[in-house]
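Hi V.,

Quick status before I head out on leave. The structure for the redesign project is tokenized and pasted below; the design run finished overnight.
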């Protein structure tokens, strides 16, 4: 993450995993200056020479003092993890002790991802005071990128990390996609309110259009290396931000029944008038007391509901709320399914499966994945705007029909019942 080359800062929901590949680039530096070659005339490291062994690096921690527009924040205590990345830890300690970070800024803030600093230029193009270090990447659970993790930014080369670092400020798919690709080397163990304050600074768009440039100066006042036992500290916990939007529902759950119209992607031959007639009939039956789930099992054209004993509906998250329930499970399942998709491609190239067989299998994977996502996690309101807007306006127990709109946002008529 020495400054991202391309990355979207919007809410990262598991339905948009293709965007996560771009998010990984967010941990890369912009236009690195000689990032893949030693810095000319670099001064010898100030920090502990070779007399300090890798096994001793865990005796050190860093106190990071930060201010916003000159207003001091609670100091952040950073616990090093030399067992994961000894070269990276040594590099960070050397740079901190040299005073290089003092007076620099956090130049990039993505509320739902990370905050990034340590660039002498202040825009992510700086390379640091010493030569680049080799990448130390691990996919182990201890090296995961979670809330409070410090990791090194880098360029396209895996061995290009210099001085820029980032701190994860939102535990979710954007951060998890960095596991095994970036060197996590430390953890914030106190001063979580300072991390939240940094992450909450308003931002404006950078030249690429990414809304990540802080509108207030976030200065690293001092990065102080301390040798000795850590003060009482524990790993900080993510903040629950659903409370950021008081006075309106943060999440809703609905059951839906799709009466599709022919001519779309679904194998349905029903005309628009026929769909309208059936939808109105089913609405009347539901309002008269028939079990809504039974109607869904019998009539819904939604692939994720067909053949399901307990047909899934939708769980929506309102703007400003970011429920984490099920995200890790969905992220893991997506990785598993990606492997299965890749294997389908191999089988097709080897002639073991026909194109039709591959298409059928891939479609089943997609349906299974969609069903799991809708069951285990929340979908951002903007991703299913028509359904979600209706859901947030309904009272629990209400039932209504949403007609197919001219823009064909909906595949047909949707019966929708607010569950909670």
């Amino acid at each position: 993450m020495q400054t991202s080359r391309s990355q979207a800062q919007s809410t990262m929901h598991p339905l948009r995993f293709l965007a996560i590949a771009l998010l990984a680039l967010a941990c890369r530096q912009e236009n690195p200056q000689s990032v893949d070659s030693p810095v000319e005339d670099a001064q010898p490291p100030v920090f502990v020479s070779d007399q300090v062994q890798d096994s001793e690096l865990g005796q050190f921690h860093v106190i990071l003092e930060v201010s916003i527009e000159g207003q001091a924040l609670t100091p952040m205590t950073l616990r090093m993890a030399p067992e994961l990345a000894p070269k990276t830890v040594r590099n960070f300690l050397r740079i901190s002790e040299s005073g290089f970070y003092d007076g620099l800024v956090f130049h990039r803030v993505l509320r739902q991802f990370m905050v990034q600093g340590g660039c002498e230029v202040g825009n992510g193009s700086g390379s640091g005071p010493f030569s680049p270090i080799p990448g130390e990447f691990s996919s182990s659970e201890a090296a995961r990128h979670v809330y409070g993790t410090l990791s090194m930014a880098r360029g396209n080369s895996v061995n290009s990390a210099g001085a820029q670092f980032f701190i994860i400020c939102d535990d979710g798919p954007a951060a998890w996609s960095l596991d095994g690709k970036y060197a996590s080397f430390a953890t914030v163990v106190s001063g979580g309110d300072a991390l939240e304050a940094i992450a909450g600074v308003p931002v404006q768009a950078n030249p690429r259009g990414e809304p990540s440039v802080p509108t207030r100066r976030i200065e690293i006042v001092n990065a102080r290396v301390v040798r000795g036992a850590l003060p009482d500290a524990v790993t900080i916990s993510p903040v629950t931000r659903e409370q950021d939007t008081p006075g309106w529902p943060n999440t809703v759950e609905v059951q839906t029944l799709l009466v599709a119209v022919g001519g779309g992607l679904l194998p349905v031959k029903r005309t628009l008038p026929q769909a309208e007639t059936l939808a109105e009939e089913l609405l009347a039956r539901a309002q008269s007391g028939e079990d809504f789930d039974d109607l869904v099992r019998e009539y819904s054209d939604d692939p994720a509901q067909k053949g399901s004993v307990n047909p899934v509906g939708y769980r929506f998250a309102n703007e400003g709320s970011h429920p984490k329930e099920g995200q890790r499970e969905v992220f893991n399942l997506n990785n598993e399914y990606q492997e299965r998709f890749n294997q389908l491609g191999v089988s097709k190239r080897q002639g073991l499966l026909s194109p039709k067989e591959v298409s059928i299998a891939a479609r089943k994977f997609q349906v299974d994945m969609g069903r799991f996502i809708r069951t285990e996690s929340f979908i951002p309101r903007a991703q299913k705007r028509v359904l979600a807007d209706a859901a947030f306006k309904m009272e629990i127990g209400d039932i209504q029909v949403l007609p197919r709109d001219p823009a064909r946002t909906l595949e047909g008529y949707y019966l929708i019942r607010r569950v909670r």
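Above is the designed sequence. Confidence is low (pLDDT under 50) at residues 2-26, 30-46.

G. will cover questions while I'm gone.

Best,
W.
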